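Exercise 3.2. Students should predict the tertiary structure of the chain below and write it as structure tokens, then compare their answer with the key that follows.

Predict this chain's 3D structure.
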Amino acid sequence: MSKPFILGLTGSIGMGKSTVAEMFREAGVPVFDADAEVHKLQGPSGALLPQIEAAFPGTTGPDGVDRQALGALVFGDAAALARLEAIVHPAVGKIRDLFLLEHAGMPLVVFDVPLLFEKGGWDRVDAIAVVSAPAEKQRERVLARPGMTAEKFAHVLELQVPDAEKRERADYVIDTGASLAATRAEVNAVIESLRLRAI
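Answer key:
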């Protein structure tokens, strides 16, 4: 059975990755959104709620996982975070495998994975596109988010592989620092390049 070419799409916080993922979708490329699947698994009636509640009592309810309560337990606790990831990652992996089966006839699919470099997912993709923007643009976008502070932003950056390193390791860099039209042109150029590689 033919297997699609898998492009891993990643980028640091505030770089515009969700916007770029949507541009791939609009161009007809199926996108697997790892974060969205985690939200479903942990949302109301989510499949992982019983396991998460058993491992972290008091962190789930009718609305799904209480992200603040769970975050407080795993934030800065490597062992607790590893326990949570051992529950979440295999479940997301199964959904990802089903996604690949569903789109087996497609020439190209995108795996939208925010922590592709941080969590070791680069070995499951055929090429990597990093979404990037100038640091001042990134900061402006992130600090405009509700509840975001300069301290929280600094902490997130500490946990992420630096943008410069991601750009170096990428096969493609998609710049979101200019207009949406310019970014869309870059996305279309990546798709065209990958179509030529797949021939």
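Discussion points: The chain has a mean pLDDT of 90. The domain at 1-30+107-199 is CATH 3.40.50.300 (Rossmann fold).
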